[in-house]
């Protein structure tokens, strides 16, 4: 059964070559809520997450809100296994899938078809599944003959349609998102939204960080409010949204 368990999770990011910049450090300290400090060895660190305790179970849809720099993206990276806690315990039961950087691994010199296989391999999607779905993917992207051209010849919109199509092939137990994905023109966006909703429905647990009250109210059953790396509140959608967005 998919589950997320965090116990006193803290993430410290080391900042190198920062000694002697007293004015800059003071300004950064103010901007980050005073979370810049020194270790016992005199190294500068930014505390991105501070003693986070959290348990999330199957069928929960969790929104994450907070100001820029509150720790939302850091929390998602801990859940995806990109960051390891500096201290505390992070236990993630289930296969995670991320839509945080859908263009990761796209090679500008490779063709659209070659990039579908490259990106799928990075996501752990079996080659046979890609073989079975390749025709549907090509049709979905609306790239036509460009699918056999190098991606460096694509417009930004074409690039994003390709990346979106292959990234949404995943079927994770725990889906991680940083804002809602918006790709293409209005006509394509409707198709993309349907595909994205199907992916969310397949996931057992959803985490989505967003600044959109509408999106949080629409998609989530629970909301985490982060402030300066700390979990300020953990509550219902109505409780948190009514306070945070007002």
Please explain how this structure is put together.
- By secondary structure, the protein is of the alpha/beta class.
- The chain has helices at 22-31, 72-80, 112-122, 127-141, 156-167, 186-202, 213-219, 237-244, and strands spanning 3-15, 36-38, 44-57, 61-65, 87-93, 96-98, 174-178, 205-209, 222-227, 230-235.
- The strands form two sheets. Strands 6-7-8-4-9-10 form a six-stranded mixed sheet, sandwiched between helices. Strands 2-3-1-5 form a four-stranded antiparallel sheet.
- β7, α6 (186-202) and β8 (205-209) form a beta-alpha-beta unit.
- α3 crosses α4 (127-141) and α4 packs antiparallel against α5 (156-167).
- The longest helix has 17 residues, at 186-202.
- The model has no long low-confidence stretch (mean pLDDT 90).
Tally of alpha and pi helices: 8
For the largest sheet, list the strands in their spatial order. 6-7-8-4-9-10
Strand-residue fraction?
25-35%
User: What is the CATH T-level topology of the domain at 3-98 and 208-244?
Assistant: Rossmann fold
Largest sheet: 6 strands, mixed
- Decide which structural class fits the backbone: alpha/beta
Task: Let me know the CATH homologous superfamily of the domain at 3-98 and 208-244.
Answer: P-loop containing nucleotide triphosphate hydrolases
The shape, in one word, is globular
What is the helix/strand order?
EHEEEHEEHHHEHEHEEH
Please name the CATH architecture of the domain at 3-98 and 208-244: 3-Layer(aba) Sandwich
Round the mean pLDDT to the nearest integer and report it.
90
How far apart are the first and last residues' alpha carbons, in Å?
Answer: 36 Å
Give helix % range: 25-40%
Enumerate the spans where pLDDT stays under 50 for 5 or more consecutive residues: none
Query: What is the rounded Rg?
Result: 20 Å
DSSP E strands, number:
10
Describe the oligomeric state of these chains in a short phrase. single chain
């Amino acid at each position: 059964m998919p589950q997320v368990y965090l116990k006193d999770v803290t993430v410290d990011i080391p900042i190198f070559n920062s000694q002697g910049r007293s004015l800059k450090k003071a300004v950064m300290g103010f901007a980050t809520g005073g979370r810049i400090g020194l270790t016992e060895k005199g190294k500068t660190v930014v505390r991105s997450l501070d003693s986070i305790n959290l348990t999330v179970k199957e069928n929960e849809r969790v929104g994450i809100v907070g100001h820029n720099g509150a720790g939302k993206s850091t929390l998602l990276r801990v859940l995806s296994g990109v960051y390891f806690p500096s201290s505390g315990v992070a236990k993630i039961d289930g296969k995670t899938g991320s839509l945080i950087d859908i263009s990761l691994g796209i090679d500008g010199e490779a063709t659209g078809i070659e990039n579908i296989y490259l990106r799928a391999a990075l996501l752990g999607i079996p080659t046979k599944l890609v073989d079975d779905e390749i025709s549907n993917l090509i049709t979905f992207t609306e790239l036509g003959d460009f699918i056999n051209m190098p991606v460096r010849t694509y417009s930004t919109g074409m690039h994003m349609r390709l990346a979106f199509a292959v990234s949404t092939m995943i079927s994770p137990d725990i889906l991680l998102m940083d804002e809602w994905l918006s790709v293409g023109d209005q006509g394509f966006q409707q198709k993309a939204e349907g595909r994205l909703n199907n992916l969310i429905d397949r996931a057992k647990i959803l985490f989505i960080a967003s600044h959109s009250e509408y999106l949080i109210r629409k998609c989530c059953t629970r909301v985490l409010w982060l402030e300066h790396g700390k979990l300020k509140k953990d509550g219902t959608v109505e409780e948190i949204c009514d306070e945070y967005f007002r």
